[in-house]
Write a structure and sequence with these properties.
Elements: H1 18-21, H2 27-34, H3 38-41, E1 73-77, E2 82-87, E3 93-98, E4 106-109, E5 121-126, E6 129-135, E7 141-146, E8 154-157, E9 169-174, E10 177-184, E11 188-194, E12 202-205, E13 215-222, E14 225-231, E15 236-241, E16 247-253, E17 257-264, E18 267-273, E19 278-284, E20 292-298, E21 303-308, E22 311-316, E23 333-337, E24 344-348, E25 360-365, E26 368-374, E27 380-385, E28 392-396, E29 408-413, E30 416-423, E31 427-433, E32 440-442, E33 456-461, E34 464-470, E35 476-482, H4 487-491
């Protein structure tokens, strides 16, 4: 078995079959080739391409094979490499990486020798590095960086001297800076930022002078600034921090909490909950004192706040968890807002009536919003919207009938969607789409037959798509599928650029 010391190695499955249909074929031909024909999607790619089936995994060698249960997490794309956290045979949980292809993944550096491991987490790219939090056993949990080499993996700064550590969290990239919340003896819990160097790691602002703590939450990039919420004993305050590190307050409320901060162009939307059965949608411009309430929502709190084309999209209207009534006419559906009360409205009543289509997993790709929804007769499937009622429609009925394929874990990577979906023939497996039905197809079948591999955490790096999945229950591992959508076009003599 091919493995990375307990992490099953690459599954070499070339994306073929249906992809070739999308290269210059007339629309009528493409429709006929895909409508209800699962076998067409599963056809093998033509041409001299060496492939392995998902069940033919080679070993990387005796020194690289370990027991199952590596439990990879925190997949992130660095410069030319995939980085992740995993448990090795002897190292405990450490930082791993792979450049893909035929290379086996390996430990970047054994930061904390021994079975405890340094437990890397919150992996975040910044320039030529990937920054993360780890505990080497001497400094406690602190901020580290790596360039993919052991020599280039080092502590950024020991913020709180000693074994306790500053416990950085809420790592948020804004331009060339990485902001985070950390603790030290002198300042308590405050906001810090770094450019990846020790000299460039500094305290940004003391929201509560001295060692007293003030809770800081909701960190989000707002253009070239950071937005966040600071709580004290008597108020919640919305702040922003500019590139110079100067902080200013935008809105203060003596009651309630702020959450779901979402930047939409020069404006920032957020939700306020004051402890009633009503959630308030607010918006503020980039100047203090401009915050205003947009609209109240009853029932379930609005969710999946997403920016697209200078508009806010979100899900609202469903009944609350404890029975609070939502939109009794439309139920939970897709909404949009331009920041005004009159411009906050339903996009489309996908499932007419009070039940609602309950959209989930909203992602944006090329100015189009994609999500999973149910229309009442075709089950839960993949949908797309340009923000208008007429421009909101189902991409493809992957699993025919009322059951639906229930797409989950939707990710947009380099003009392609990757997600998990369930079919009666293959269970829940990895799928991909460029937003059109003729190029919506299953990537591979990891768990044999109708069993499900439950793929998640999709990351596209180079010509491969990495994700976590299990070929048998309770055996989740890191998998990679070669993904070359331009290849069939090149074979057909078409413009490969149109397949990217």
């Amino acid at each position: 078995m091919k493995a990375w010391r307990g992490i099953p190695m690459f599954v070499s499955v070339v994306l073929g079959g249906l992809t070739a249909v999308g290269c210059g074929a007339p629309l009528e031909e493409r429709d006929a080739s895909v409508m209800g024909v699962e076998a067409a999607l599963d056809s093998e790619p033509e041409g001299p391409v060496a492939v392995e089936s998902p069940m033919a995994r080679r070993e990387c060698g005796p020194d690289r094979v370990g027991p199952p249960g590596a439990k990879p997490e925190w997949l992130v794309r660095g410069e030319g490499r995939l980085f992740f956290s995993a448990e090795g045979v002897e190292q405990g949980r450490e930082l791993w990486s792979s450049s893909g292809g035929s290379e086996c993944a390996d430990v970047v550096k054994d930061i904390r020798p021994g079975p405890m491991g340094s437990v890397p987490r919150f992996l975040t790219p910044l320039g030529k590095w990937v920054l993360f939090v780890a505990d080497d056993g001497q400094h406690g949990p602190e901020l580290w960086r790596t360039d993919g080499t052991a020599a280039g993996t080092m502590l950024v700064k020991d913020v709180w001297k000693g074994e306790r550590g500053s416990a950085p969290r809420a790592l948020t990239r804004v331009g060339n800076w990485l902001y985070f919340v950390a603790e030290d003896f002198e300042h308590g819990q405050e906001l810090w930022r770094t450019d990846g160097t020790e000299a460039g790691t500094q305290l940004v602002h003391e929201f509560q002078p001295g060692a007293d703590w003030r809770q800081l939450t909701g960190l989000v990039a707002w253009g070239d600034r950071l937005a966040l919420v600071a709580y004290s004993a008597d108020s919640a305050v919305l702040w922003s921090v500019d590139p110079r590190g100067l902080a200013r307050a935008h809105y203060r409320s003596p009651v309630g909490v702020f959450f779901s901060l979402t930047a939409v162009g020069c404006r920032l939307f957020f939700l306020r909950d004051i402890g009633t059965d009503v959630a308030e949608l607010w918006v503020t411009a980039d100047r203090p004192g401009s915050a205003e309430k947009v609209r109240d929502f009853t029932g379930e709190i609005p969710s999946y706040l997403t920016s697209m084309n200078n508009m806010l999209f979100f899900v609202a209207g469903s009944d609350g968890y404890f029975g609070e009534k939502g939109d009794t006419r439309h139920g939970g559906e897709l909404w949009r807002s331009d920041g005004s009360s009159s411009g906050t409205r339903l996009v489309r009543d996908i499932w007419p009536g009070p039940k609602g289509s309950l959209p989930t997993s909203l992602v944006v790709m090329d100015g189009v919003l994609y999500f999973a929804a149910e229309d009442g007769w075709r089950g839960r499937e993949l949908w797309r919207s340009d923000g208008s009622a007429l421009g909101t429609w189902m991409v493809w009925d992957i699993e025919w009938g009322a059951k639906g394929s229930d797409p989950e874990q939707i990710v947009a990577e380099n003009d392609w969607l990757f997600f998990s979906a369930t079919t009666s023939l293959y269970g829940r497996e990895a799928w991909t789409s460029d937003g059109w039905l003729w190029r919506t197809r299953r990537l591979t079948d990891i768990a044999p037959g109708t069993s499900s591999s439950d793929p998640r955490s999709f990351v596209r790096a180079g010509n491969e798509v990495f994700f976590l999945a299990g070929d048998v229950p309770m055996n989740e591992a890191l998998w990679a599928v070669p993904f070359r959508p331009a290849w069939p076009c090149a074979q057909a003599g078409q413009d490969a650029q149109g397949c990217q």
